[in-house]
Amino acid sequence: MSDVNVSIERRGFLGSVAASAAAAGLSAIGATAATAEAATADGDFSKWLAGISGKHRQVYDMPEPNDGMGFIWTWVLQLTGPQGYGVAEKDIGVVIVLRHNAIPYAFTDGVWAKYKLGEQFKINDPITKTAAVANPFYHIKSPDLPPDAAVEKLLAKDVKFGVCNMAITHYSGVVAKQMGLNADEVKKDWTGAVIPGVQIVPSGVLAVNGAQSKGCAYCFAG
Question: In whole angstroms, what is the distance from residue 125 CA to residue 133 CA?
Fold first, then answer.
């Protein structure tokens, strides 16, 4: 595998977005297919947005791994919000948007090992301090991290998770090229590994915008 990790591929990301946009206008057939796919995604996205609950709402925007701080801050908000506002925990609504280099946090452990996502995205295991070979925040094992900040625990408390389809498409393509694999197959592998309960959204920036339109205060967490 190349030493060039995907976390520095911003120029490549922008190029692939531009190429996809250009390709969409090349033929009526391609445009029709793209429109149908977008309509389906939009329906799922609308349902996801409609499911945001709570009187006091916040969206954590995670474009970078940032040692999982978006998860930890969510746990802190759920811990202190009821006391501060004098409300039940269910009245604290939280959305976490995983986009750009934070998308591996949306995946189960198998693809982390298979595609060396810790190495690729420069995410270290909090215990070994080396490149993670499993999602360190899916099930928290480190004694230095609050166990209730785990993705599985946050999902159980109705935290809404979204992961960027644009980033999945681009970065799975980058990794496929490095490993000499078929890009479509790698993307299929990644999307199939999305943690149950996490919603693939058309783009991370759209999800952040949509969450704010539903009354979520914004917090940059990456």
Answer: 8
- Is the dihedral angle over the CA atoms 150, 3, 114, 180 positive or is it negative? positive
Domains, the chain, ranges and CATH? 44-220 (3.40.1260.10)
**pTM reported for the whole predicted model:** 0.85
Residue 37 tokens read as 């796919």
Which tokens sit at 190? 């990644």
One-letter amino acid of 169: T
Q: Specify the amino acid at residue 204.
A: G
Residue 148: name the closest of 77, 88, 212, 90 by CA: 77
Spell 85-96 as b/e; 16+ CB within 10 A means b.
eeeeeeebbbbb
pLDDT tens digits for range 26-48: 333 333 334 334 434 568 999 99
Q: 71 with 137: CB under 8 angstroms?
A: yes
